[in-house]
Amino acid sequence: MTEIHYLEKKPLPFMAFYTLAPPPDLRPFVRFFWVFELNGISSAGVPYVYRSMADGCPELLFHYKGLFRGVSSSVGSSRMTLHAQSSRFARYQIQEDFGIFGAYLYPFATEALLGIPADALSGLEMSLEDLLGRPGRVLEETLLDCGTQWERYQALSRFLRAAARRRRPAGEPIHECVKKVIEQHGAVDINRLAEEQNLSVRQFQRKFRKAAGYNPKLYARILRFMEVASRNRADFSSLTALAYAHAYYDQSHFIHEFREFSGYTPREFFSGTPEGREWLTG
């Protein structure tokens, strides 16, 4: 059920990242839960900067220790936030030890569980209280009372399970299409997906956007980028080979799209340790 990775990389004294499989009844909506902790930031003498990149799935985040701030903003984050699927990158920093418990969702889960279509949230980051009102505030207070990861896992699962019971979401064919694009890292034929759904391309695009937050073409591009960014430098002989293996037309296309979604060129990203990505293995 649990996949655990502990990383210790200088100059950060101790870092831990691990994932937790969701309960079976939540698997249609939750891809996994995760925990990310870093201790020893104060002794390192410099703030820790985390860079989020384009991502096709939203996350519910609970900051149980420490609180990040946007680098370009002096406004602090809420303890309990929703980071929706995004086509852009953002930077955050913190000068104290931190711990985050998160739920990585399918994009259609926001409508199925919270009643908000994915395309109404794309690119947004907001507190759960602002999004849901009192239920969001109550969930934050509940999680603040939890002392262990297992208690947080149980509390957030109960919240999502109760949301599912209230809305009684039924699986929709378009959800399976979104999952297929995710599972195949964007390497899909959009016209064929529309045909499989017995929909015109325009009808399919409208339904897909509502469920995934973006039109199928952009969503597939984001998923392809995510797959490339997850690769280990030892897995490919050159950046050109990596680009062609993932159906980029040429190096210029590859560089432009990678910079758009991450803020880095591929060479910058793969030549060292990218900002805030130390938790990745390899």
Description:
With 282 residues, the chain is an alpha+beta fold. It folds into two domains: 2-167, Jelly Rolls; 173-271, Homeodomain-like (Arc Repressor Mutant, subunit A, Orthogonal Bundle). 40% of the residues lie in helices and 20% in strands. The protein is built from twelve helices and ten strands. It has helices at 41-44, 109-114, 128-132, 134-144, 149-167, 173-183, 190-196, 201-212, 216-229, 239-245, 251-262, 266-271, and strands at residues 2-7, 14-20, 30-39, 48-52, 59-65, 69-70, 80-83, 90-94, 98-105, 125-127. A seven-stranded antiparallel beta sheet has the order 1-2-3-9-5-7-10. A three-stranded antiparallel beta sheet has the order 4-8-6, with no helix packed on it. β1 and β2 (14-20) form a beta hairpin. α6 (173-183) packs across α8 and α7 (190-196) crosses α8 (201-212). The radius of gyration is 19 Å and the shape is globular.
The pLDDT mean sits at 89
Q: Which strand order do you get reading across the main beta sheet? A: 1-2-3-9-5-7-10
Counting DSSP H or I runs of 4 or more residues, the number of helices is 12
Alpha carbon gap, first and last residue: 22 Å
- CATH architecture descriptor text of the largest domain: Sandwich
Unreliable segments (pLDDT under 50, ≥5 consecutive)? 1-12
Helix proportion: 40-55%
So what's the overall shape? Answer: globular
For the CA atoms, what is the radius of gyration? 19 Å
Question: Which series of helices and strands comes N to C?
Answer: EEEHEEEEEEHEHHHHHHHHHH
Q: What's the CATH C level of the largest domain?
A: Mainly Beta
Question: What name does CATH use for the topology of the largest domain?
Answer: Jelly Rolls
Sheet/helix structural class: alpha+beta
At the fourth level of CATH, the homologous superfamily of the largest domain is Jelly Rolls
- Count of DSSP E strands? 10
Oligomer: single chain
Tell me the number of structural domains.
2
* Major sheet summary line: 7 strands, antiparallel
Q: What is the percentage of strand-forming residues?
A: 15-25%
